[in-house]
Amino acid sequence: MFGIMLLYPYLKILKNAHMWEGNVMNMVKIRAVLSSILLVVFIGVLIITVGVLYTTRTGHTFLGISKAELFNARNILGPIMNILIIIHLIINWGLYKRELKVLFKR
Q: What are phi and psi of 62, to 5 degrees?
């Protein structure tokens, strides 16, 4: 729920993205913002994953964060990342279709 609240302003913008398809600069900005947020969340998930592996193998805390706290953070960042990936795929669907055509072209 917290993740959706964080993403709500961006989801509102993306909901009306079809109105901006003629304006290339706005779509580029939307893609840049989405990619930047996705990168930050990915780095967070990556650090949390390293922390979970470390705490599981050693039993010590990771940067002062317990295993339970790392799992809680992962439970927040994981769904946020999934939502961002789905939005990213929706926005870039046309590009993805063109790439597949090139990939499977005979």
A: -115, 110
